[in-house]
Here is the input.
Amino acid sequence: MKKLTIFLAFLLFAGFTMQAQVQISGTITGAEDGLSIPGVSVVVKDNPTIGTTTDMDGRYSLSVPSSAQVLVFSFVGMQTQEVTIGGRNVIDVVLSADVLEMDEVVVVAYGAKRKGAITGAINVVNESAMEKSTVASFDQMLQGQATGVQVTATNGDPSAVAAVRIRGVGSVTATNEPLYVVDGVPVDQSNFSLINPNDIASMSILKDASAAALYGSRASNGVILVSTKRGKKGDAQINYSYQHGYSYMQMGNVEMMDAKQKLQYEMDLGYRSYTEAQVDSLVGQSHDWFETLSRTGTTKIHNLSISGGTEKTNYFFSVGKFDQEGIVEASYMDRMSTTLNVDHKVNDWFKIGNSLNLSQADYGVLRDRRNVQNPFAAMFFYNPYEAEKLPDGEWNITHSGFSISEALENNPESFNRIRGIGNMYGEIQFFDGFTFKSQAGIDYQQRLREAYTKPESILASYVGDNKTEAFTQTYSYVFTNTFNYRKTFKDVHEVSALLGTEYNKYYQYFLFSQGNTFPSGNLSTLDNAANISNGGSNKTEWELMSYLGMFSYNYNQKYYVDFSLRYDGCSRFGEENKYGSFWAVGGAWNLHEEDFIKPIELISRLQLRASIGTSGNFDVDDYESLGLYDFTAYGGESATRQFQIANKDLKWEKTLAQTYGVDFALLNHRVRGTFNYYIRNSSDLLFDVPISKTSGFDIITQNIGELQNKGFELELDGDVIKKKDFLVTLGASVSHNKNEVIELYKGQQIVEGVTGRTVVKEGYPVNSYYMVRYAGVNPVNGDALYYDKDGNITNVYSGDDAVILDKSPNPKYFGNFTLAVEYKGIRLSTLLYYNYGNYIVNGIRYFTDSDGDNVADNVSTRMLDAWQEPGDVTSVPRQSLTNNARYSTRYLEDASFIRLRDLTISYTIPKKYTEKVKMSKASVFIKGNNLWTYAPNFTGFDPEVGNPSAESSLGAPFGTFYDFSYPTTRTFTFGVDVTF
Here is the structure.
């Protein structure tokens, strides 16, 4: 009976205990950025066996006894918080960074991780690096912000995008650009100027396979994850910022002849003869064409946003206006943009949200070619004694028969672009730590190009008036479904897993029409043309179906292992190779958590990392694997012909990447650094190879090449002075990459460019220079001298004497130096960016140092140092009307430089003043970009050379040829930023 009584009492007590449980849930976010934090430990104080961890979205749900009084929230890198329950069922917590152990949350592939849990190589560019940006395109802001990431402005046009190379050149014929993903949507890498940089919260740069393998066949060149701003719980905040800037053309080391020098030069060569009176008259009207054709550019940027949140809904909404006038007439960009991001918690287990970015922009563009239809070429070609206008006020067509000033007015070319990037998602939490997320996203673009030669224009007198309208529409949509699981066992074993599918489709439609014979320059629509002379359309599309998975494990936040796998199927490739798998394995060891390291006060953080994995490059033409036919005429009848042979074996290029790294912090985090060593082996590279002519074709694309990149990255920064109101931080970075072609088809060499300036050959870097070597000038007769293939000096130029040089367009080293000084509300920051060891063919010198061949155009003052008589020692040959300048190493220049990329001084007004006018924050700043450049061995506008247009590059590979492109500008900007 006694035992029965005890048993019944036990059951009664157990039932009482079960009924006395309380369910508590909430979301954990970071104070710095408002982002949710996964992996936060939530336990009951005085009973730590009752606890849980937050999921991928920073949410938790925990059943606790009704007697529990306090919850403890802890996370590596954050200050631990104890929160009184106080009868609440929903407890949201904002964790602040632990200044002694900073370990922020980083956006990674399909989720987020603590920095200390990452096994791959990732750099993060945060909001503070972008909030005062004066550029239109966010990719340009990456320069100098991440090791191993080379960012080159293709030109200074207001709408220009940058070229980004992560850890070297991984392909010869396919793209070397990384994959960009905006809020989970893979986006086309063109037209980034349509995305407002002020709406971006952070960018994560995934540099190796462990970090990027989940993006599979598109990740071999790295991945850049762009996250736009989102709201966080709290009162609504209204932010407004305004910037006003001025831009100026950088002259670099350019020196052209003035009027007197050029007239004398023409007479010395016997090109023309002038009387003294004529010389005086022409010199009297001389002017500087660089000043005539350039102007001070202006930039005006307005941004307005409102953000906030409640227990269930967070929101961010913004509108922005960007107006920029370029440094020459007819160059401009006007953009309007808006962003709306919403996250809504429907109930305890269901969450929905969206991201939406819409923009519209108008651009005025210039001809980028090698003649006077390009203002940056006309500046060099026009003679200084030629006036812009004649005495009667008419345009002067100069010796070229053309007036660029008139053309900028009467031959306008413009683009109108619209872009929308958006997604919406729904997320279900089945139980603590297990969620399902479904997302649909789209990247939509349309572009209208209009190029008009007015009937009254000078150009129309040569080619007739005409108008071209070209319309392009593209959309890329993606559907992603993922299951996520995260759980901690026995407080020390943390596992997380992801399993999902993804479907991408891309579609493009192109339509154009041309007309001529317009009644007036003011009537430019094609329905006013007397003749519709041309027109056409085409469309293209591709699809990608993917399956992906990831598993991560860590023991006691000391030892980490990641495994990623993606299986892609792409419509672009042959029947035999439509599908491929990509994988990665990574590990990390937090030594600072070990007992044998903790006593060492010098070490605040020490982490070792290693990873290996594969990724792909699927950049081939959409129908490259198919046998294609077109329609033509034969014998007066319609006929069908095959113009492309089927290629069933075509597959993607693949990269096997290894990274070995260490992250460290010393002296209580006063000194911080990261070092990475990497090896990237790219195989199955795509090249055209010859095939039997019995097939009816000469070549076919095959996967037969291999190249390697290997190098290191080092970044250091430290707080030199760290006091309450005074902080001085210094930083520096260096990146080194060695590129080598390992294998080509039958060891052949591939000469690039019309003039054969570079070569792809086994044992050499991609696009090594392949040129005839210049040997100087014969002091006896002034002949130009060259080295033949065997190293003998000759005065006979022959392209057969070209040799491969130990010089390439790729820098041996690049990096930055940074300085930040903060005193109370005043902050000064600088960024010095440098390239070392890269070479460029100076195409402008080829035309302006033509030794008399182009005497009708203006020439460089270097021609004043030309050989004159026997015994003269000079590097400039004798001048003659019969000379013909030749491409040689005479025009190959060392383009190493160091540049003051950014200098910003800002002042944040103390709160005791802003609060009086209901402001929570107010600041003003002044900023300079490209203020100073030191390039001692380069004689052009700008040593930072990108890719000339197809009109002027003559097939030159990226970064190898300096031409008459829009130069980068020197800018000064004033700004104000207020928050209510």
The first helix runs from residue 2 to 19.
